[in-house]
Write a structure and sequence with these properties.
mainly alpha; globular
């Protein structure tokens, strides 16, 4: 019995040893591997720290997005708008105070001690606009679809529109008129008032002549509306908004597609706009494309996105 057990064990060891023979001496078996760098696989658009443009951080998974639960603050557009308010008030107010009041979440008590809010209360028309935009129109785009009972009633929306149009018509300068107009197209967008949207947009927002940040924010809403039945025009606007507005860059990239690309390019009014559309094509292109970059350079050698695309390439 003992001899039989030894023979069985010997066969088992011989079988195991035979499996090990193909491996050469010194071969290492590792559980981990070293894959190519993400940049080589083009998982990401490019290194978000290039040229210190924070608008690109949200395109990739990056430690800056998670460190201490932090998020990238992309507030170039908001900074420009805050500076516009300081000029309109013609007072020396810390920029951070303005941004906290306009775009932050100050409590009512904290707002009372805000330098910008204190200056604002001295100007009746500007103060009335702030109350309308902040307390009445508020965060229309952030309503919870799972709580329809909290959605504004039709009568409330109608009153907001009526008040907004009255204030728009009586506003004493273009600064206030454009801002009341912006609030109205927000209401029109979120409550499906296409006639109101088109009328106000056409009258107060133009990207053809010296556009401001609010023009590009309004153009973003227009681009989304065009998605329904004018996809070529929608993609045209997505590309231009991407080029001009950092705050709307990520959503414009999400909505843009290469469908009917030749027709979209045909909508470009000049070489700069054509280059902006070509940039969008390269941004969503996962493959190498030196020829595409050359085409952008040919149309707009000073295009601000060229350094980033070239570095990625």
């Amino acid at each position: 019995m003992i001899f039989k057990n030894i023979m069985k064990r010997s066969k088992w060891f011989l079988t195991l040893f035979s499996f090990l023979l193909p491996f050469q001496a010194g071969t290492k078996l590792q559980a981990c591997a070293f894959p190519p760098e993400p940049e080589e696989l083009r998982f990401m658009l490019f290194n978000p720290d290039l040229l210190e443009n924070k608008a690109w951080w949200s395109y990739i998974y990056n430690y800056k997005l998670t460190y201490l639960d932090g998020t990238p603050i992309i507030d170039d557009d908001e900074t420009i708008l805050a500076e516009d308010w300081i000029r309109e008030l013609n007072e020396k107010i810390p920029l951070d105070e303005v941004k906290r009041c306009l775009f932050g979440t100050l409590t009512d008590s904290a707002r009372l001690h805000n330098k910008f809010y204190e200056a604002l209360k001295k100007n009746k028309q500007l103060s009335e606009y702030f109350e309308y935009a902040n307390n009445e129109v508020g965060y229309l785009g952030f309503e919870n679809e799972w709580e329809p009972e909290k959605r504004l009633s039709f009568s409330t929306v109608a009153k907001l529109i009526e008040k907004g149009e009255t204030k728009l018509n009586s506003a004493s300068n273009s600064f206030l008129k454009k801002r009341y107009a912006y609030q109205l197209i927000k209401i029109a967008f979120y409550y499906n008032k296409s006639d109101l949207f088109n009328r106000i947009y056409t009258q107060y927002f133009l990207i053809e002549k010296n556009p401001e940040i609010l023009d590009w924010w309004a153009a973003h809403y227009k681009s989304v509306l065009l998605e329904k039945d004018q996809t070529d025009s929608a993609n045209y606007y997505h590309a231009l908004v991407f080029h001009h507005s950092n705050s709307k860059k990520y959503i414009s990239r999400q909505l843009y597609s290469k469908r009917n690309n030749d027709k979209v390019l045909a909508l470009a009014r000049n070489k700069e706009e054509k280059a902006a559309i070509l940039v969008m094509n390269e941004v969503i292109n996962p493959a190498r494309s030196l020829s595409g970059i050359r085409l952008i350079y040919k149309n707009d050698p000073l295009n601000k996105h060229l350094p980033l695309l070239i570095t990625r390439e």
